[in-house]
Fold this protein.
Amino acid sequence: MKKEAMRLSFPRVSEPFEAALVEVKAFPDHEEASSFIRSELLPWLRGLRHEHNLHLAVWIQGENLHEGNAADLVREHGAYWLPDTGLGVWPDREPPRLWIAEDFQDLDPGQKPRPLMYTVFHVSGGPEACEHALSTLAGSGTLMCALLEKTPDKYHEKATAQFLPAIRDEALRGHPFYVPLLAARSCENAAMSSWLDGVLVYARESTEDNGILVLSRINHALRALLPHQE
């Protein structure tokens, strides 16, 4: 994917982060998004990881696994990726909860209720497995990744301590870990820095935005990834 062909937008974001949205037509997208992730995002993440001695974490979002061949790829490579199941939390929405009667009232014909939960799978097989998962699932609409100050296990402990207390339904409190899900509209929230405590870079294939959201608190790092940003 040529940089000059990128369709970019730059969500307003709370300091100390910088934000960019690499727009795609739709997910799954096996041309623009997959090329950007493999040729641009992955080498950029690799360089930052080594330069700043960071830890790469990759999660697979379960909500869109049924689209395209993503589920087949997870099954094919599961023994290498070693996916661990957790729960994604939207910190700028109400906490995860079970369905209640009101969720099914006033739905239009054919309209589905909100998702019951946002399952995520952490690629626990190590840095090489993480990079392989990023390359393999690129453009599927299921990827989320981060560069962390500490190991993914330590980050999961911190994020779980932050997000679990707000979840009241016991059926949703038993997951091994909880991690934040963010979209472009999340960026202006002043609490974002606390939501991403310990995270220096966050990237997510956002079906809500039809794009790849990239957040960085490393000074000017986005300029190396997106040199044509304004």
DSSP finds six helices and nine strands in the chain. The mean pLDDT is 92. The helical segments are 32-52, 70-81, 127-137, 152-163, 192-195, 221-225.
